[in-house]
C-alpha cells in the first residue's frame, strides 16, 4: 500500500496537478479543476484507501479483487477504492493513478486542456 507521502509525491509529479485537503483529511488531486485521485482513511474499514477514476474495463474487473470496491460516493462515475488488502505494489498504484489522470485530462474541455 502506498503511504500518503508516496501518493502525494507521485501525484505532484504529474503535470498541471493541484492539491487540496478536504472532506476531513482526504488528500485530493485534480487536473484542470477535476479530481483524478484521492488518498483518505475510511474509519469503518480502519484502513487507508486510494480512490481513483477507472477506465470502463478496469471498473468492471477491479472490484472483483480482494481489497478493491467501487468508491464510496463516486462509483456512479466509475471510481474504485483500493486498500492494503489488494496487495498492490507501488508500480501498480502508479500505473492506475497515471491512467486516472489521463482519463480525466482527456475529458477536460479543449480550451482548458490548451490552457494547461
TrEMBL record:
Query: Is Kinase included in the keywords of this UniProt record?
Result: no
Cross-referenced Pfam families: YjbR
Q: Which UniProt keywords apply?
A: DNA-binding
Q: Entry's InterPro entries?
A: YjbR, YjbR-like_sf, YjbR/MT2646/Rv2570-like
Residue stretches spanning the membrane? none
MF-aspect GO terms = DNA binding
Q: Which PANTHER family match?
A: CYTOPLASMIC PROTEIN, CYTOPLASMIC PROTEIN-RELATED
* Record protein name field: MmcQ/YjbR family DNA-binding protein
Species for this entry: Maritalea mediterranea
